[in-house]
Each structure stands twice: as C-alpha cells, then as structure tokens.
Amino acid sequence: MKIIRSIAELQLELGNYTLEQIGLVPTMGCLHEGHLSLIRKAKLLSDIVVVSIYVNPLQFAAHEDLDSYPKPFADDAELCLQEGVDIIFHPTNLYPEQGIAVGLHVQQLNQQLCGASRLGHFDGVATVVCILLNIIRPSLAIFGEKDFQQLSIIRRMVSDLYMPIEIITGETIRETDGLAKSSRNRYLNALARKKASHLFGCLTLVREKVTQGLSIPDALSAGLFYLQQQDIQPEYLSICSEHTLQPANQFIGVTPLRIFIAANIGSARLIDNIPLYSTNKEKEIKSCV
Ligand code: AMP
C-alpha cells in the first residue's frame, strides 16, 4: 500500500494503471466499520482502490468542529492496509494558497434537512468531491447512505455535469443498538452514547407507525413525542422523497420515501436515516435491541 500526499505524485502513480478500473472511497478519516464496508465494496468492484483521507475545510462553518475533528492517521493507515487498499491519498491541502476562486454551488437539494442549517456545507462537499474526481479520475466512487443528502447531491452533480463516473452506494453500518457508526460518536460520553441510540429508536418507531396505517404527520408526531420522552430536541425529523428530498405529507407510493433525523446529543451533531420500508438487516438490529 502506498501513502501519497502530493497530487503530482498521485497522478504519476495512477499513470501506471491505464487499463485497470480505479475505485475511490472519499473519507475524512477516523475510519470505522462503515468506511471499511465501502472499501470492501470498492475492492469487489474495482482493480485498484484509492482511499482519500482529507478533512475538507470548505465544508465546515466557522463554529463547527474542523479543528477538533479526530485525525488518527496511523490507525487509519493500519486499517486500510488490512483491507488491502492500494493507495491512501492524504493531502495536506487541496486548495490554492490564495484560496479557491471558483467552486461548485448546490441548489434545490440543499434547501432542506442538513442544508437548511449548514449553509454552504454542500457547496464545500460538492467542490471537494469534484476536485478528487478530477485528480484521480476513477471509474467508480462509493458513498454511504448514512449521509443520504450528500449522496443525493453527488449523484446529481455527476448527472447534471455529465461526469464520466459511476456512483455506488453502501448501506449504513450500525452498532448493535442501532446507532449509526460515525467518526463523531467519539465525542459521546457514556450517558450521551446511550441517549444517541434513541435516534434509531425514533426512526424505527416512525416507520412502524406508518406501516400500521398512521398518516405521515401523525407518525412524525409519535416520533417527536418519543424523542421528547428521551429529552432529545431534534434539529429535524422528516419524511422526504429520496429523489427530491422534499418533505412528504402523505404516502403516494410513486417516489420512495425515507425518514431523516438530526440532533445534537452531548457535544456531537448526529444524523441518520432509514427507508420507509425496512431492509432485513434493520429488522435484525431491531429484534436484538
Ligand atoms: P466521512 O468520513 O464521515 O466523510 O464519511 C466518508 C464516507 O463514509 C461517506 O460516504 C459516508 O456516507 C460513509 N459512511 C459514514 N458512516 C457510515 C456508516 N455508518 N455506514 C456506511 N457508510 C458510512
């Protein structure tokens, strides 16, 4: 496995692979099982796997956790080695010294959910992913459903800008109590960690209520009541179209719907989502909680 920090060196190295399919897994490091599941998928689908590890300043607002974001690079490198990653791309900076003059701007898909409170966040995400794709030119890149709004925006970026790349998705990997694995779970103390499992509890409750025949507004009210009982004030709890991310007030059966949640628990801002109709994996987790 090669660890490469400079763009020129990376491109020189990638020049050795002209016929091979390159698969890219973009990350901000602090790798966990969620990231590793994406790496394993990339290994199955491509010949050469590149994992980028870059905490992108452009997607953090001034008051957010850019400086405190965990950076256990030696552990990350060890995990990548164990997974058979070919190249870790770990640049110190991807932007011009004088700052970036031209970047991408997201519209429509950033008006709701995380985009409503994290102004400029998805512009930063789209710009850095575009830069990584331009540098590495992979055949495919893999993104997790855990960050569903990000995934939707990247899919639209690739389609709207005719970028020659396939976007592959990976399902959310969870702890045994359902909490979605996240680098930010490290910020949770024991009490907050216990509380955090109620986010998945709330998502599955809302789904159960809809499946039982409750209307979407009533199912969401039941979810909000559940959160209130756990002393959690969500930033949002919403059922939205997977395609437009617009909130749905009724089930119309044409567009697939998803339940989305975000909340600050202790010092971590956590997000999660599940499809309105359950996958077998989620049923398994529910039955062992
Ligand atoms: P991050 O390092 O948080 O920027 O995430 C890098 C990639 O890993 C993104 O595509 C995320 O959606 C994905 N990811 C993060 N957490 C999980 C998880 N629990 N399961 C699957 N994928 C995940």
In short:
The chain is built from nine helices and nine strands.
Keywords:
single chain, 289 residues, 6-stranded parallel β-sheet, 3-stranded antiparallel β-sheet, 9 helices, binds adenosine monophosphate
Topology diagram in text:
Elements: E1 2-4, H1 7-14, E2 22-27, H2 33-45, E3 48-53, H3 73-83, E4 87-89, H4 113-117, H5 121-136, E5 140-144, H6 148-160, E6 166-170, H7 190-211, H8 216-229, E7 234-241, E8 257-265, E9 268-275, H9 280-288
Parallel strand pairs: 1-4, 2-3, 2-5, 3-4, 5-6
Antiparallel strand pairs: 7-8, 8-9
Helix pairs in contact: 5-6, 7-8
The site of adenosine monophosphate has 17 residues, from α2 and β5.
Distance between the termini: 39 Å
The major sheet is characterized as: 6 strands, parallel
What count of helical segments does DSSP give? Answer: 9
Unreliable stretches: none
Strands of the widest sheet, in order across it, are 1-4-3-2-5-6
Order of helices and strands: EHEHEHEHHEHEHHEEEH
Structural class estimated from helices and strands: alpha/beta
The small molecules bound here are: adenosine monophosphate
Percent strand: 15-25%
The count of β-strands is 9
From the alpha carbons, calculate the radius of gyration and give it in angstroms. 19 Å
How would the global form be characterised? globular
On the 0 to 100 scale, the average pLDDT is: 95
* Helix fraction by DSSP (H/I, runs of at least 4): 25-40%
Summarize the structure in words.
The protein has 289 residues and is of the alpha/beta class. It has helices at residues 7-14, 33-45, 73-83, 113-117, 121-136, 148-160, 190-211, 216-229, 280-288, and strands at residues 2-4, 22-27, 48-53, 87-89, 140-144, 166-170, 234-241, 257-265, 268-275. The protein has a six-stranded parallel β-sheet, with helices on both faces. It has a three-stranded antiparallel β-sheet with strand order 7-8-9, with helices on one face. Helix 5 (121-136) packs across helix 6 (148-160) and helix 7 (190-211) runs antiparallel to helix 8 (216-229). The radius of gyration is 19 Å and the shape is globular. The chain starts with a strand and ends with a helix. The mean pLDDT is 95. The site of adenosine monophosphate has 17 residues, from helix 2 and strand 5.
